[in-house]
Amino acid sequence: MIHIKHQVNFETEGEALYIRLSGEIDHHSAVGVRVGIDEKMLSDRPKIVYLDLSSIDFMDSSGLGLIMGRLATANRYGGQLIVLDPSVAAQRMIRLAALDRVIQIQFSKNRKEINS
After folding, report:
1. What predicted TM-score, i.e. pTM, was given to this entire model?
2. Cα(40)–Cα(55) distance, integer angstroms
3. What percentage of the chain exceeds 70 in pLDDT?
4. Can you point out the beta strands (E) in 1-116?
5. What is the pLDDT of residues 25-44, one digit of tens each?
6. What is the radius of gyration, based on Cα positions, of the chain?
7. What burial letters (b/e) apply to 59-84, b meaning 16+ CB within 10 Å?
8. How many CB atoms lie within 10 A of CB 86?
């Protein structure tokens, strides 16, 4: 039986592409998610890509690779990647890898950064 561990939703607003991920990002799901996002980024060539991680329940190192790869793709097309409202699970992995020093992260008023 195949279980869907993630969902990807796209929304375009002007020159911005909003990508909302939910569920789990692990080595089983990351490839499919990456391919879908890359196809959308290639076709739209957005100036800003917002990667909303607020609904991520689990993320392993494959999720970090997913983020870094999309950062490289955005840069290649002259764009920018911003991670929005990472969940506690996503924040922990991002911090563990010190990725928060490399990527831009934004928190909305209703979301907070974890302290540890």
Report:
1. 0.88
2. 20
3. 89
4. 6-13, 16-25, 48-59, 80-84, 104-106
5. 998 888 889 999 999 999 99
6. 13
7. beebbbebbeebbebbeeeebebbbb
8. 29
